[in-house]
Amino acid sequence: TAAEAVDIARCLSGGPLPLSWIDQALGGDGRLVRFDAPDCYAFRGMMSEGCRLVLMWNRVAGSEGNKDESLFPRSVFYKRVVMGDLEASRRKAVTAPAKLERDALSYGVEAAFLSSVASS
Q: Is 107 within 8 Å of 81 (Cβ atoms)?
């Protein structure tokens, strides 16, 4: 069994990513049956963490009325930024609070872009 990046494949509350959330975000109509987050595809950087989620979809015989299975991705990349979980952010809070404030504003700009029409 390969090691999993369970420390990264988490939602904001700290629990595991809900399968239903991933399925809904990808338009899977309940067909996502599982995902893996192999640690070999993970990174743990100073300002963010990320991992590739390998997706397994339910194969439906006679896809009449269902989306073609080939339309669903085999994997997606999941980036997680929770400043309180990052060692560099905790260190900056003590040694360079102005830099931490700058970083927080930068994350806000990135979040605004990602939620805008421009990123679609």
A: yes
For the beta carbon of residue 4, count every other beta carbon within 10 angstroms.
Answer: 14
Residue 71: phi and psi, rounded to 5, are: -80, -15
Dist. CA 97–CA 111, nearest whole Å: 21
- The helix (H) or strand (E) run that includes residue 23 is helix 19-25
Residues 73-104 pLDDT 10s: 999 999 988 788 788 888 988 999 999 899 88
Element (H or E) spanning 19, and its range?
A: helix 19-25
Amino acid at 31: R
The helix (H) or strand (E) run that includes residue 101 is: helix 97-114
Decide: 39 and 4 in contact? Cβ < 8 Å: yes
